[in-house]
Amino acid sequence: MIFTNLKRITRTGFINFWRNGFLSFSAMVVITLSLSVFGALIFGSAFGRALLKEVKNKVDINVYFVLDSQETDILALKKIVESLPEVDKIEYVSREQSLIDFKNKWKDNTLILQGLDEIGDNPFPAVLNIKAKEPSQYSGITHFLDSKSALSKGGTNIIEKINYNQNKLIIDRLGRIIPAAEKTGSLIAILFVIVAIVITFNTIRLIIFTAKDEISVMKLVGASNLYIRGPFVVSGIMYGVFSGILTLIVLGGFAYYSDTLIMRFAGVRGAQDFSLLINVFSSYFIQNFGQIFAIIMGSGIVLGGISSYLSVKRYLRI
Amino acid sequence: MIYFDKVSKIYPDESMALDGVSFGIKPNEFVTIVGHSGAGKTTLIKMLIAEDRPSEGAVFFESANIHKLKKGEMNKLRRRIGTIFQDFRLIPNKTAYENIAFAMEASGCTDGEIASDVPHVLELVGLGHKIWSFPHELSGGEKQRVAIARAIVNQPDIIIADEPTGNLDPINTYEIIKILQKINELGTTVLLTTHNKGVVDTVNSRVITMEKGKIIRDDKDGKYVL
User: Which residue, among A15, A183, A136, A223, has the nearest Cα to B93 in the 3D structure?
Assistant: First the structure.
């Protein structure tokens, strides 16, 4: 009996979905829009995260050493700093390397190269480039280096300067802006999700309102609540499934075309300068397809199914 | 079989639709309730099929107080009552076949029973050729026949017909009443409400006359007196 009922409920749900073509269509349009909002939020947060990551990556502090400092001293300091938990990456650039880098950079500008020859000696200091895990950690690392600065073999200070103080302002600001941006982003996301849910729920409620006489007739011929409600829930789930598929197609298309669009808007050069902007959507979409699929389809099915379930409820009270 | 015990219904706007109504219906009776619009006929029917609750008093179906039944028992009871309405109340997006099949599905019939009974009962009301038509493709008389077929398909103990001929022309009216009488002859109790004098005189059986929520006459071989 349970199996028969299940079969009948499913069949009726399918038939109603098909026969109420226009209503089904409008429900799917609304749910697709809601799900697209979810998708836009997913993409938005992915983009935001990529952007923040890139900005964080661009921030580092550079420790310049006095010209006659010993490489062994520097490497010893590097080792100590490396062991700090806050430090993400540390890179040593020797004086010779700095010179080569500089020459490479200005290899087309003879004037500058001539000027360099005039000096004769290598004017570049050795550098440690330090990258912290979080922007807020730079001040701690700088303090640590300041306190360690006396620690060289001869008792002389090998650190010429740390450029943290120059960049302090921007690093501090980033430290504050990034969490605030993340918080605002999730607040807006929650708001949008609520709006989308409410709109979908109301649409389905209106659709079921048109069937309220039908529901009362079903009650009067003695159908159980489950048997009346079932087909509506099946139709609701079908709205969700089809809307989900539609949304995934829209999102996929957007991911695919957005890259070319960004290239066009920013100009090819601009986009290359911000290499992060290239392929961020399409690669994100491909890499996280399973997750996006689950979120979009899941939300669609849950939205359609639960909205229908709840909407029928009020007409079952006779 | 059915007993109304001092049933009153006062609507929220304080209009009194039923005022201490008491009467009984025996098995296999054909009872006609007459009265002007607003006399309380439809409210009475609503009490009986538990579409609404009385403000005072009780309605019994056999020994059970209808309004004290649990949900599951109520569904079972409703399957023993076949209802027919003036506005037909067919499910618009189901065919004639599916409308009747739905009532059978609701009472737990097997697919085999449905496949054999539905065409049979449609044949009985003279609609064998319109089995796959949707309600909007049927005339008023045809819709009402589908409704009757739906009401009788589960072989109920009682048929309740609330002004079933209100929207029909005289010929269809006559035919619908004939069908109801035939159902009655086959052993099903029928409760009919109407304000059509011709119908009452055709039926020629017990007539209950209502006015302003009260029963003013109850005649065994009644005529339409108002």
Answer: A15
* Residue from A221, A232, A317, A318 to probe the interface with B (highest B Cβ count within 10 Å): A221
Please tell me what DSSP assigns to residue A85.
Answer: T
Count CB atoms within 10 A of the CB of residue A281: 23
ipTM attached to this prediction: 0.82
Q: Summarize pLDDT for B51-99 with one digit per residue, the tens.
A: 888 999 999 998 889 999 988 888 888 889 999 988 889 999 899 999 9
| pLDDT per position as a tens digit, B24-62 | 999 999 999 998 888 888 899 989 988 888 999 999 998
How far apart are alpha carbons B105 and A8 in whole angstroms? 8
Closest chain A residue by Cα to residue B108: A1
Nearest to B102 among A20, A216, A221 (CB): A221
pTM value? 0.75
- Element at B85 (helix H, strand E): strand B81-85
Query: Shortest CA distance to B103 belongs to which of B155, B173, B28, B174?
Result: B155
8 Å CB contact of A227 and B110: no
Residue with the two structure tokens 């098995």: B27
Q: Given CB atoms, is A94 within the 8 Å cutoff of chain B?
A: no
**pLDDT tens for each residue of B160-190:** 999 898 888 888 899 889 999 999 998 999 9
